[in-house]
UniProtKB/TrEMBL annotation:
Pfam families in alphabetical order: CheB_methylest, Response_reg
Residue numbers bearing the 4-aspartylphosphate modification: D56
PTM remark: Phosphorylated by CheA. Phosphorylation of the N-terminal regulatory domain activates the methylesterase activity.
Compartment(s): Cytoplasm
Catalyzed reactions per annotation: L-glutaminyl-[protein] + H2O = L-glutamyl-[protein] + NH4(+); [protein]-L-glutamate 5-O-methyl ester + H2O = L-glutamyl-[protein] + methanol + H(+)
Name assigned to this protein: Protein-glutamate methylesterase/protein-glutamine glutaminase
GO molecular function: phosphorelay response regulator activity; protein-glutamate methylesterase activity; protein-glutamine glutaminase activity
InterPro entries xref list: CheB-like, CheB_C, CheY-like_superfamily, Sig_transdc_resp-reg_Me-estase, Sig_transdc_resp-reg_receiver
Domain CheB-type methylesterase residue range list: 152-345
Record-annotated active site: S165, H191, D287
Written domain comment of the UniProt record: Contains a C-terminal catalytic domain, and an N-terminal region which modulates catalytic activity.
Enzyme class: hydrolase
Protein EC: 3.1.1.61, 3.5.1.44
Length: 345
C-alpha cells in the first residue's frame, strides 16, 4: 500500500516540525513538503499533488479560510484544519468545516503532544480513504437538497438522542435546520475539541429555529430545546422522567472519547426506553453503536445515516451491522424521518 502523502501548511516552523515528527512515525504516512503560508502552499500543491493537507487556520498573507475556500473550488483536496484553542480559532474551525474541510484538530497544550499526534494520524488516514473512494458528494451539497414537506408538528414528548463524529458539523446543520421551533427535545454528542462546542452550539442556535445551547447539568429536556454535549470535560447523560434532564458526568473516556455517544445512548435507553429515538450520523470508529443497540432493545426507535450520504461511514456502519438501526436514511431525509417518528398529530 502506498503511503499517504501529506503537505503541512503552518506559519510556525515549530508547529510544522512537531506535526512532521509526530506523523512521520507511522510508516504509512509520508510528509512530502511544508509551507509557511498559502502562497507557498499553492505552489507545493501544484507540484506535489498531496493526498491530504494539514492547514493552520490563522496565517499571514492569506488566512486559512480564504485559502480553503479557493482550494475547495479549484482543486478539492481533503484538508484537516489545525486550530488554536481561542474563541477566534474555534470560530474559524467551525467555518472551515462548513466550507468543506474534512475535519479539525486543536493545537496541543503542554503534555498533549502524543494525544494530538494519535488523533491527527487517525484523521489523516480517514481523509486519505475518503479521497481514494472518489470523494463522494460533500454533506453540504446533500444538506441543500429538498426535504419532504411536513404536516403541522407537535412533539409527542419523545427524546431524540443524536451521535456524530467526522462530518457531523455539516450533518447536524442539515438535520436541525429543518426542525420547527417546537421541535422534539433533543440531546447531541458530537466528537469535537472542548473549545469548539460552545461556538458550534451558538452557530446552530443562529441557523436553526429551536433553541440550541451547550448542555448544562440539570437542563430540562423540553420541546423546542436542543442540547450539545460540551467537548472534552464530561460525558452527557439523560436522567429522570418529569421532565428528563441533562447530567454531566466526569467519567473516563469511553471508546477514546469524552463525551462519548455510547454513554449518551446508554443513559437514554435506561431513562426513556420506548419514549426515545436514537440517531447515529457520520463518523469514524464505532462509538455509539452498542448504545444504540441498547436503545433499540429498550423499545426505542433507531435511525442510521446511509453510506452514500456519509462523509465517513464508520459509526453508522457498525450500528447497522450489529442490528442497532431499524432503518437507514439519506441525510436529506433524516429530519423528515425524525419529525415523522416524534409527531403527536
Amino acid at each position: 500500500m502506498k503511503p499517504v502523502r501529506v503537505l503541512i501548511v503552518d506559519d510556525s516552523a515549530t508547529v510544522r516540525g512537531l506535526i512532521r515528527v509526530l506523523i512521520s512515525r507511522d510508516p504509512n504516512i509520508e510528509v512530502i513538503g511544508e509551507a509557511a503560508d498559502p502562497h507557498e502552499a499553492r505552489s507545493a500543491i501544484k507540484e506535489m499533488n498531496p493526498d491530504v493537507i494539514t492547514l493552520d487556520v490563522e496565517m499571514p498573507k492569506m488566512n486559512g479560510l480564504e485559502f480553503l475556500d479557493k482550494l475547495m473550488r479549484l482543486r478539492p483536496t481533503p484538508v484537516i484544519m489545525v486550530s488554536s484553542l481561542t474563541s477566534k480559532g474555534a470560530d474559524a474551525a467551525i467555518a472551515a468545516l462548513e466550507m468543506g474541510a474534512f475535519d479539525c484538530v486543536a493545537k496541543p497544550g503542554s503534555g498533549e503532544q502524543e494525544q494530538f499526534g494519535e488523533t491527527l494520524l487517525a484523521k489523516i488516514k480517514a481523509a486519505a480513504g475518503w479521497r481514494m473512494r472518489g470523494a463522494p458528494h460533500r454533506i453540504g451539497d446533500l444538506a441543500r437538497a429538498p426535504v419532504q414537506a411536513q404536516r403541522p408538528y407537535r412533539s409527542d414528548g419523545r427524546i431524540v438522542a443524536i451521535g456524530a463524529s467526522t462530518g457531523g458539523v455539516e450533518a447536524l446543520i442539515a438535520v436541525l435546520s429543518h426542525f420547527p421551533e417546537n421541535g422534539p427535545p433533543t440531546v447531541i454528542t458530537q466528537h469535537m475539541p472542548g473549545a469548539f462546542t460552545k461556538t458550534f452550539a451558538g452557530r446552530l442556535n443562529r441557523l436553526c429555529k429551536p433553541a440550541v445551547s451547550e448542555a448544562f447539568d440539570g437542563a430540562p429536556l423540553e420541546a423546542g430545546h436542543v442540547y450539545l454535549a460540551p467537548g472534552g470535560a464530561a460525558h452527557l447523560r439523560v436522567e429522570g422522567v418529569s421532565p428528563p434532564r441533562c447530567r454531566l458526568w466526569k467519567g473516563e473516556p469511553v471508546n477514546g472519547h469524552r463525551p462519548s455517544v455510547d454513554v449518551l445512548f446508554q443513559s437514554v435507553a435506561k431513562a426513556a426506553g420506548p419514549r426515545a429515538l436514537g440517531v447515529i450520523l457520520t463518523g469514524m470508529g464505532r462509538d455509539g453503536a452498542e448504545g444504540l443497540l441498547l436503545m433499540r432493545q429498550a423499545g426505542a426507535s433507531t435511525l442510521g445515516q446511509n453510506e452514500s450520504s456519509c462523509l465517513i461511514y464508520g459509526m453508522p456502519k457498525v450500528a447497522f451491522e450489529i442490528g442497532a438501526t431499524q432503518k437507514q436514511a439519506p441525510l436529506n431525509m433524516m429530519a423528515s424521518e425524525i419529525l415523522r417518528a416524534t409527531c403527536a398529530v
